[in-house]
Amino acid sequence: MPPQPGSQDIELIVVATVSGMMQADVLIAKLNEAGIPAIPEYESAGPVIGITVGGLQLSQVRILVASQDAQEAKRILTTPPPPGWEAEATASTADP
Hints:
Layout: E1 12-19, H1 21-33, E2 38-42, E3 52-53, E4 56-57, E5 60-66, H2 70-78, H3 85-93
Antiparallel strand pairs: 1-5, 2-5, 3-4
């Protein structure tokens, strides 16, 4: 179960900030796959209108994890993919 905002027992830490929900969904899936629950936090208008108002980018999404998972989450998100991942991804999506 993902950490719940407002929970008194869990301190949430921002481990990444991205532009838009598509990028956020990819990072959250990557963390969840590693066993780290994560949730997005964004301005309510962000997913609907990706604009900048007064220097605030409304499409900005912050990825939150429990404080005890923050260090491992940052490591996962900053580790580059293994060599050859592009060829493997292309091969798995090619028509037979």
